[in-house]
C-alpha cells in the first residue's frame, strides 16, 4: 500500500478542529470516514495548509492543491517557515489575522497575496483560518483553507 506523507492523526485534528470551531465540515458527507484524510490530501478542490506553534511557525501539512498553488512539493513546503509564503509587506497583515484567530478560534473571509516558488504572486480568496486543537483542546497549530486564487 502507498505511504502518504501526512500524519492521519494530524488530519483528524485539522478536520475535528475546523468542525468544532466553525460548525462546518471540511470534507463532504459522501466521503467515507476511512477516506477523509486521503480525500483532503489528494482530491479536495481547495487548498489546506497548517503550521505548528513554534516561535517561527513551520508548515506541518499542505494538501496537493496547496502544493500546486505554491509550486512546491511536500518536502519543500512542509518544514518551511509559514511566514515565507507571504511577501514582507503582506506579513504584517497575515500576522494580524493569525493573532485574531489565536484569540477567537477562527476567521472567515480572509484574503491576501501569497508567493509561489517561481516568484509568481497570487491572491488567496475566501480563506478560513482556524486553530488546530489536540484531543484535550490544547492549541497545537493553526490551519488555513482557501477555495479561490487569482493572479496578483
Could you describe the 3D structure shown?
The protein is globular. The mean pLDDT is 92. Helices cover 34% and strands 29% of the residues. Strands 1, 2, 3, 4, 5 and 6 form a six-stranded antiparallel sheet that branches. It is an alpha+beta fold. It has one domain: 2-Layer Sandwich (Beta-Lactamase), CATH 3.30.450.20.
Give the structure's gist in a few sentences:
This protein has 152 residues and is of the alpha+beta class. Helices cover 34% and strands 29% of the residues. The chain has a single domain (8-151), classed as Beta-Lactamase (2-Layer Sandwich).
Write the layout of secondary structure elements.
Layout: H1 8-22, H2 36-43, E1 47-51, E2 59-62, H3 64-70, H4 74-77, H5 88-104, E3 106-115, E4 121-133, E5 139-146, E6 148-151
Overall tally of structural domains: 1
Helix/strand order, N-terminal first: HHEEHHHEEEE
- CATH superfamily annotation: PAS domain
Distance between the termini: 40 Å
> Per the principal axes of the C-alpha atoms, what is the gross shape?
globular
Portion in beta strands: 25-35%
Number of strands: 6
Offer a few descriptive terms.
globular; six-stranded antiparallel beta sheet; alpha+beta; 6 strands; Beta-Lactamase
